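Final paragraph of the annual report: two paired records, presented back to back.
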Amino acid sequence: VKPGAAAISLIKGMRVRPEGPQLISQMVRRNLGIDCAVLMGANIATDIAHEELSEAVIGFDNHDEAMLFKKLFQRPYFRISLLPDP
């Protein structure tokens, strides 16, 4: 992974281990050694693909990276909010 790389998890769910649950973003942070924001929301991929009004939240630690991800994902039919809590 290149220095300065940013990651965002689009995966719903978590890994269940004998020690307890682990968020996918935690796995990314540990395995890649970089911060990982999370995009989540009560939306359906096909609704977004059909440009139906949907919303999601990006949970983050790094505000600058979150703003970049918001610019990448937000569309007139797909509203993105930011929350400083990955």
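The closing record of the year follows.
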Amino acid sequence: YVYVALPSEDLIRLLELIPGDGPVIQCRLRIAFFEDVEARYEAISYCWGDAKDTKYVSCNGLKLPVTRNLHDALERFRDKKKTRALWAGAVCIHQENEEEQGHQVRQMASIYQQASKVLIWIGK
């Protein structure tokens, strides 16, 4: 999977979880102005789990590795009929881009505060 760079610090990525109940989790990552998405997404709080224990989701038609724990959370939170807008740090922040990581982490308190709700995932 290749991330599209965030051109400015006032942008975030949201994970659009595609409805379904099959074995393949499908999603899209979209870039949005942070000020425009207030209460239009749910943030997920979870333990990342073992970084080496991964599964794949189909994101924008490409394979994106996520930890097993996040995969389990997405599987549980996926709606059967409607798209769900989520924010999950491990996916919505490009973890290999230190500059992006820095400015996104500085926004995390606001990201959680402005979510319509925070979903807590402690595992199966």
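The first helix runs from residue 68 to 77. This concludes the annual technical report; the extension proposal builds directly on these records.
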